[in-house]
Amino acid sequence: MAASAIRRGLLSTASKYHKLKCSQRLLSAIEYNSGLDLKRPQALCSACGLSSFQQTRFMSSRNRAEGKILEPVGVFEALKQHGKYETGQLFLHSIFGYRGIVLFPWHARLYDRDVSPAAADSKPDTAGHGSKEVKGKMHTYYQVLIDTRDCPHISQRSQTEAVTFLANHDDSRALYAIPGLDYVSHEDILPYNSTEQVPIQHELFERFLLFSPTKNPPFTARDTLRAWQEKNHPWLELSDVHRETTENIRVTVIPFYMGMREAQNSHVYWWRYCIRLENLSNEVVQLRERHWRIFSLSGTLETVRGRGVVGKEPVLSREQPAFQYSSHVSLQAPSGHMWGTFCFERTDGSHFDVRIPPFSLESNKYDKASPAGYPL
């Protein structure tokens, strides 16, 4: 069933939790063929440091094997208010509900047009999308593996997330992807622990991570993970995140430079970008149209209009407040800018535009080699 169905589950209060020892708090059980979702924790317990959740999961009988009800996966841990999660940390995604494990962190500059924090970094609005200067604040993201058992139930995304690369040959349009690889913001991590030696099902789990029962968390990076990270750093690196809210719809954009290829005696530069749409209100709205403006350093300005995004017109509601997708863009210049709007429709038939924060498309110094792929 859809991931959001869990929000309709039973609610567990902090007082009920404190009738048990904190160490015995059972993580909400999940069924491998059920949906996933969680409410984000609002406060930490002053006694034990653990979060008070309202997240007992609602289970679906759809496709349920006879006699199969619930399967526990672990025990929640305290959220990290300071510092970062380590390699091997198990977690649930607070928005999309899937199980995952942290591979390594990225430190990105978050340019939030809704606030102006005092920070050293800033970016002027080069795309003509307003006049205010946007301050950048350092923020932690994580490269993670998604449990493949949960991928079919992440309904609020256009596809199971994958990191795409340029192919290792001359076809400038050919891409390949590593499925089940995602980027997760620090505040979207709901950490838990498990006694299982292989708690996450993903083809790279045992190639990248080693079970080390004396460690906390009990999974450490293998040499293959460190080598893969080093070789593919240019195409994996997350450096800038852009965010803006219009009429309670928050748009977050993360661009990634993918590299350059030659095509018909010219250079073609490629980027991928990930966009998350979040409805911060209780109003039901539906995305109807997109309107992009793409400026290239070569002097061209392209306008792109179309229905929906990636073939979908997602509905954002209280039950399913978020939608995420990825796409690609190429330019015949080493840099450019993108900005635009999404047109949403309310239930009464009225429409409103939501701004897409302007973001730079910058190439970098890593154009010397193709991605190294991953171990098979």
Automatic annotation (TrEMBL):
One of its GO terms (molecular function) is DNA binding. Involved in DNA damage tolerance by regulating translesion synthesis (TLS) of templates carrying DNA damage lesions such as 8oxoG and abasic sites. May act by stimulating activity of DNA polymerases involved in TLS, such as PRIMPOL and polymerase delta (POLD1). One of its GO terms (cellular component) is nucleus. Residues 243-368 form the ApaG domain. Keywords: DNA damage, DNA repair, Mitochondrion, Nucleus, Phosphoprotein, Transit peptide. It holds the Pfam family YccV-like. It is found in: Mitochondrion matrix; Nucleus. SMART domains: YccV-like. Interacts with PCNA and POLD2. Interacts with SSBP1. Interacts with PRIMPOL; leading to enhance DNA polymerase activity of PRIMPOL. Interacts with POLH. Interacts with POLD1; leading to stimulate DNA polymerase activity of POLD1. This is Polymerase delta-interacting protein 2. InterPro entries: ApaG_domain, ApaG_sf, Hemimethylated_DNA-bd_dom, Hemimethylated_DNA-bd_sf. Its main location: mitochondrion. One of its GO terms (biological process) is error-free translesion synthesis.
